[in-house]
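Board notes (copied after class):
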Amino acid sequence: MSHDDTYIIKGGIAGRDRLRVLGRALQPTTTAFLHRVGVTTGNTCLDVGCGGGDVSLLLAEAVGPSGRVVGLDLDAEKLELAAAEAKAAQISQIEYRVGMVQELDDQGTYDLVYSRFLLTHLPDPVEALKTMAGAARPGGVVAIEDIDFGGSFCYPDNVAYARYCELYTQAALARGVDPYIGRRLPSLLAEAGLTNIVLNVEAPATFNADIKAVSPLTLENIADSTIAAGLATRDEMDQLIAEIWAFADEPMSILSLPRIVQVYGTVAS
């Protein structure tokens, strides 16, 4: 089964719009993570499953003009948009490539191999991690951020939000991938041969409009795969999307992101 078969979220321009909001919402936590990992001037970095390039831009800022960032993703349309954004920002140290982690043949190349929200969509995350570790130089770092959907919550209780969480997890499980993978990440990195594993957990949940918008935007972007799996009808999805947007618009409502697990480990020298 290919990544195209297991990825439940819409790609292309609609998907990029969602990722742009998600990127803004997560910029503080991801920037802090990259700082803890030790990304520095002159590093070479690979951003696997880079999407619209939001983290690639953060990496480019961290490594500076003397460094190098490669963004890899299977969505050519998103990469076109990402390349245009990098050019407009006059950032020349990013190269975007169309491809899948399973096709990655770089060996011993990068100081850092990073991925955010990719492994949750893969049927064999350990094999992907082994490939990523192989792309890092000896003593380099593999750093992962991914979700544990079991950590999602809202306040006050909301039927539409609860149904959204149910549909997301069911759609992922129906395609043989893991919406709770975050809690498994340390074990998966160890299984892939990484050492000195460090764990951190983030649970973004505030009144921030971007964070609250991620849930209804995600629901919009999983509608087709959810309907295709027979988990909901188009009418139900349309109603749920309207209800969850209305809930997000309430000034004092809280809609969390899924729990985000950040893990990194070292490649053997």
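Comment from the instructor: The longest strand covers residues 136-148. The longest helix spans residues 12-37.
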